Amino acid sequence: MSQEEILSYINDSLVINGSFYSNQNLPNQISNAIYTFGDYNVFEILAFIDATKEQDGSRGMIITPAQIYFKFGQAGIIEYQKIISLGLEKHRNDSIIKAIIKLEEITYTFSNQIIDPEVFVTMLSKITGIEIEMIMDTHEKVEYYTRIVLNDLENDEYEDIVLTPTQNNSIKEFYKELEMVQQLADEDYQYELENICNRALEFFDVLGLDSDEIDGLLECQNQFNQKNIEEEQKIDNAQQFYNDMMNKYQQGDSEMFNRVKSIMSSMGIDENDLAGKSPEEIEDFLCGKFGISKSMLEKLAGRFNKGTVKH
């Protein structure tokens, strides 16, 4: 990649705390930066970030056409041609965002204290052509990818797409929903994002959109569908087990009560743990015990209720 192309991806949006200097206005302290953590053999500097309050150049980042020299907590060198993978890690309810740069012999992690990890890893992706691995859970990816596509639509990044007033309103509604889910508990957050994923993909399909982010949403949808299939299979298996027990009980199997107690014991459930609890408290206990969602427990209960024979 040419120097001009690299320069097109470098600007002051890279900096959170510090001072950004382009190659047109390098400060005097650049000499101290080169001495402290740079290389005197470097003659072309594209940009410099001074991360010191004193503006003395003892900490920061020097960006060149072939590599990046830096010193924050540690000093290091990132040679573009030695980058193996790029990652961006961000999680719900966690203010820390990390850019993860893996080289042939070492991995560097940059958090959102001095430089913007997302801008930084995107810059390196443009320079190297390496795709960014999003280190998030599946639901967080839905939120992340959906916001990118909506933002690109608003900024006319998709050619030949003319939005109708109704479609513009739909974009606003998606944004509102993405904000509202932030206030939800984890299970409700996940449930709502699965719905948003499906509806967003339908919306983007109607517009005829195609992008890496939409491919990412499709992958998320496939994972949700697979999870639902697995949960349905668990429910089917549990219902079959329940039906078998009820049939034997109704046929006069006097050992069934003892067998149920034995099964509970093998699962680590003491009948005294359930005594005196409300239905809601029992639901919470069982969900925590077996690591299942309340929605799955409700499906399970619904299946059992339908299959119960009254006598």
Describe this structure in words.
It is a single chain. 17% of the residues are buried. The protein folds into 2 domains: 3-135, PH-domain like, CATH 2.30.29; 138-225, no CATH class. The protein has helices spanning 3-7, 30-37, 117-128, 138-154, 165-180, 186-207, 212-250, 256-266, 271-274, 279-290, 294-307; strands spanning 19-22, 47-50, 60-63, 67-71, 75-79, 83-89, 98-103, 107-111, 132-135. The chain has a 5-stranded antiparallel β-sheet, covered by helices on one side. By secondary structure, the protein is α+β, with helices and mostly antiparallel strands. Strand 6 (83-89) and strand 7 form a beta hairpin. The longest helix is centred in the C-terminal third of the chain and has 39 residues, at 212-250. Helix 4 packs antiparallel against helix 7 (212-250). Helix content is 51%, strand content 14%. It has 11 helices and 9 strands.
